[in-house]
Structure formats: structure tokens, C-alpha cells
Amino acid sequence: MNVQQSAFVAAQRIKNYVLETPVEHSLWLSEETGADVWFKCENLQHTGSFKYRGAVNKLLSLSDAERSAGVVAASTGNHGAAVARAMSLLDTPGVIFVPENASPTKLKTIEQYGAEVRVAGDDCVVAEAAGRRHAEQNGMAYVSPYNDPDIVAGQGTAGVELVNQLPNMEALFISLGGGGLISGMAGAVKGEKKVFVVACSPENSPVMHKSVEAGKILDLESKPTLSDGTAGGVEEGAITFELCQKLVDDYVLITEREIADTFGAYTKNHSMMIEGSAAVAIAGFLKQKDRWPGKQVAIVLCGANISKETMEELL
Fold first, then answer.
1. According to the CATH classification, is domain 51-143 in 3.30.300.30?
2. Which CATH class is domain 3-50+149-314?
3. Could you say which residues of the chain have pLDDT below 50?
4. Strands, E, within 237-289: which ranges?
């Protein structure tokens, strides 16, 4: 797929539904590293996550008849909340499947939008499989968290905005889970620009990272991680696998201690809320800070949905 072209089309389609999130300069990271560091604040997007972009783009891409038949999604939380909000706004019925370990805070958000929630398995891949089966059996559209061209294009609209906001950007750091955000944003920002894109994953759940290393999608067990937004496996045949191979320039793994330390340092220097997966992208930049003095760098704050328990653990 031509991600850049699809992202520009999606930007026009969803512009009346999403927020154009701001970029915020980080004096803390700029002074500490010598780079010109900016945050792309997707933590300020509707539902507190970039996921809303892809969800509303997917639902708007469906016909009236398809929306009337209902949609099914599977999510650890952020994608489910995004789809639930889009369903509510577009008067679309549906079901959200979640794994047993989904964040209670994120589940509460899904339920507040009126969506039906069903629990399936102990990993997002299991929940995704259950969701796809339910959609097929009931003639409903399945809304993947990442394995869908419309989802990738929707996430890429954050990159469309970023190109205009930071025209001199030379590096972009993004947290990596299933690869929807990084595939969409990398495709959108690269175009004719030479932007170096770095994928940042928690060591406890590096499935896409390890899959790209191996040259095939791997079935790996994920350990508990403070970065619950990027946790879990990657669906077999995911379109984001090849997009990551093509568009991502480097990969960084982050320990749980690094996630916690970075979250603590961020909260001391910035007033906005972020979740663990956003701290992963900041930590990834800090691990490579010696490469970027004098360069303009963007870091995506992918979400702000964090439970009280996880925040206490992080701090």
C-alpha cells in the first residue's frame, strides 16, 4: 500500500472528527542531549490515544449497510476505547473483545462509551482471533488494532500533521507494538523527506522487533510490562510486518527499569499525563541521544491512559 497517499486521503476524511494534536518543545530533553526535541502530543487526542485516528477512519470507510450490521474489535484497551467512541458517534453497534490482562482503567473507558465488552484469552492475539471469529460468524466488520490498511492510514494522519508542524525534523521515535502507528507515521513523514525512524519496544514484549530480526512473524510469549499499550503478539500475516521492514530505520529495546526511570523524569519536567508506552519512546531516544546533537527530533507521546496502580509502580 502507498501509506503516504492513503494517510493524506484519511486526513481529509477524519478531519472533522479528530483533534490536530500539538507539538510541545521539551526544554528538559533538549538541554540534556543537545538536540532540538519536540513531543507529538497524541496523549491529548480524543480517548487519550492515537488509536482514535485509525478507528474513526476505518468506520468512515465502511458503507452505511456495513456500519448498520455492526463492528467487532479486539484490544488491550486504547484501540477498544477508540472504536467504542467512533461507534457511539457514528451510531454503529458492536462488540469489543479484550484479553484477561487488559487494564481496568481502559476497560472502564470502553464501557463508558456504551460498547459491549467480552473477555477472551490471556493475550491480545487470542482476543483478536476470537474477535475475527465472532465477526465472520455474525456478518460484522472486524476492526483490527493494526492489521488493516484503513487503520494504518488513520494512524498516519498524525504524521501528516507532524510534517507541517516540524518541517526540519530529522528523527522520529515511536513506540512499537503491532506496528500500526509506526507504519502509518513513517510512511507519511518519509515521502521526500529523509526522516530517520526509530522503533522502541519493551524488552518484555518485543514481538515485532524480534520478528523483523528473524525475517518472519514469530509466536513469542510476552512478559508483563509497564508498556501495556504495546504488549502482546502480532497477528499472522499482519501487513505492518512488511511495512516495518520497509519504513523503520532502527530498533531499540527498553528495560522495565528504563521505562520507570524515564516516566519519573518526564513527570518531573512536563505537566502532561502519559502512559508507559509513551515513556518507551522517550527512553528509546535517550538511549540514542549521542547521535542527535544539533538535530531536530520528534518523539510521539502515543497515549495518556494509565491506571492508578501502574502509575504508582512507575513512580
1. no
2. alpha beta
3. none
4. 250-254
